[in-house]
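re the bet — no i am not wrong, look at it urself. input seq straight from the record:
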Amino acid sequence: MSIYDFKDYRTFLRKTIDLLPKKGRGEINRFAQAASVHPSLISQILSYEKNLSLEQAQSISEHLDLTNQENEYFLLLVQFQRAGTQKLKNYFEEKLNVLRTASVELSERVRQDRLLSEEEKSIIYSHWIYLSVWLFSSIGDGKALDEVSQRFELTRERASEVLNFLIQTQIKFQLTNSCIQLQCLFRNLTLKQFVLDLLKS
């Protein structure tokens, strides 16, 4: 089961409970304990009588051990449900669609090219930065190493580490006009001057 298959956080939580041993007996109490609320409030939330606060959602996300990317998606689901105007709902829905599309493209690309190793999976799903850098770098003609570093407030070493990982997980590439075009995990990723930056380091 993938959280990206859900457009309603309550449906996701109920399905999560159902898939646990013994149909998740006692899980509502564990949700309540994680969120520091009474179990009756969790029952009301799952029955669409109330909404999770963002603080409660974050605590439940940690209890479920969601990855950073999954946590972001889960919190956006909650914000979408809490939004009081259609305009605000549309705003959060657009953000949800971006994450959902990235997840689908990742799955499809991996199936088409090769399977990630368990080590690679653990890395790419461990932090939101990998998908975020891919999305940012796929805009227009790509981004230079320093642009990635500044955009995400990363050191050049950390930005280089992330970009290196995205390259090495799918090594098909060609050099064009001092740029490197990469068949990465998802689609073409062009990183201006990245090769030159690596050679200088």
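see?? Residues 86-113 form the longest helix (28 residues). told u. also The domain at 117-200 is CATH 1.10.10 (Arc Repressor Mutant, subunit A). so pay up
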